Amino acid sequence: MEEYTLAHGNPHDEKRIPAERETYALLDALGIEYDRVDHEALFTMEACAAVDAVLGMHICKNLFLQNRTGSAFYLLLMPDDKPFKTKELSAQIGSSRLSFSDAEHMQALLSLTPGSVSVMGLAFDREKKVQLLIDRDLLQSEYFGCHPCINTSTLRMRTADILEKFLPAIGHAPQYVTLTGEV
Hints:
The protein is globular and about 45 Å long. It is α+β, with helices and mostly antiparallel strands. The N and C termini lie far apart (37 Å). 26% of the residues lie in helices and 22% in strands.
């Protein structure tokens, strides 16, 4: 098993991708404190378990979705252990036939690649084409975990900082949903 180290704040490493460096710069400019674990690329929630242990929390599930026609896009944040049922979400947001969006839209709208989906990508959605959806259960946790636009690092910050500082600064108001994982 890989051994991970908890670090605090911006790594100030010019070798990191531009979107990751911009994410750290934005968080720093907003006065948002964060801890970080650097690791190999992680592509599943199961692979994140060892990083979660170091952070002392669970990173949330981040799903990039679109409607059937590709005219509406959604970023859903939900607990990592809750099953996702499209029918349940569709009923709450009034959008039928939701599916996972493709890598091209992910890159064009959020500057992200598959495996790196994160609320941090909304900073790059300057035209506000992506609606943020947050499962209310995430509001119960003091801390929020996500990738900084790349899946080789994971951040831990206060949930209140995401809701009260980050989202207002980038102009994205969340729509809250209540998901049970059942239909």
